[in-house]
Every structure is written in structure tokens, then in C-alpha cells.
Amino acid sequence: MLVEKSTLLPCGIEQCIQQIMSTQLLKYVSWPLVRFVPMDPPALPVLWESQKYLVKLRLFGFLPFGKQTINISVASTDPNRVVLRDNAYGSLIDRWDHRITLVPIEGGTLYTDRVHIRAGILTPVVWAFAWFFYRHRQRRWRKLVDSGFTYSDYRMS
After folding, report:
1. Which parts pass through the membrane (predicted)?
2. What's the pTM?
3. pLDDT computed for residue 118 by the predictor
4. Average pLDDT, the chain
5. In terms of Cα–Cα distance, which of 33, 25, 87, 28 is closest to 60?
6. What residues pair up with 86 in beta bridges, in sequence order?
7. Span 2-146: which CATH code?
8. Strand 63-78 relative to strand 81-90, pairing
């Protein structure tokens, strides 16, 4: 199943690229719905690298929701279309193929989340969560841009 959601971020694509490469952004835009607890490596780097990261998922910061392997790669670095991919999978979700696409447009950057989901019998439930989750993430993104990229109102862990 597919979830796709776009929003206009009123900032330059360079700022967006800098932010999507930061693990701090994932923590910020996911809070308080999902918390990622690093397992291997035991801490997330400051900036994403093209590699795999094993994490525990915590819904609302505390409810265990299995483990997931975050599998980061940069799919495109064309200055007119940047794509970051997380081809994730986990103990409850067979496929969470998430692509973030950034395209410079008049007034800022068009930011798109597109995720293909496969979770067996849980797919409709996981899809419904993802539908809500990506809307939440984009609200948090807009709030972050509006604040001048001031990370506040969330816990770092």
C-alpha cells in the first residue's frame, strides 16, 4: 500500500537538504508519536550515512512496537530533485520503503514523503498509521521552518 503527501516548505532546497541529512530532524518530526531507540550502532550519528541502523520503535515514546532496520541511501542528488531513501524493514513491517523528495519551486521547496508499506495482515492498520504519521511529520517540518530551524518542544532521546 502507498502513502504519499507533499507540502510547500518556505525555505531553500539547500536548507532542506541540510536538515534531512540530520538525525535530529527524524527525532523532531516524529515526536511525540514515534521514538527511535538506537540498538546497532548504539547511537545514531549526527548526520545520516548510507548504511543500516537497527532501532527499537516506541509509539508515543514508550509503547514497544518492534524493531526496525533503517536503511539510508541517497537516491538522487540532482540540484533540481533530491531524493533520500529509507528502504526500511522490521519485525512487524516487511517493507517500509520511504522516499523523501525535494524539488525547488517558486516560494520554497516542494517536500514529498512517499512510502510503500507491506506488513502482512497488519498492512491496513500500518497504512492508516502512516497516513496520519506523515501528515504529522509535515506539520512538524513546517513548524521547524517557521521557527528558523530552532529545535525545541521535544526530547532528544
Report:
1. 115-134
2. 0.93
3. 98
4. 94
5. 33
6. 72, 98
7. 3.30.530.20
8. antiparallel
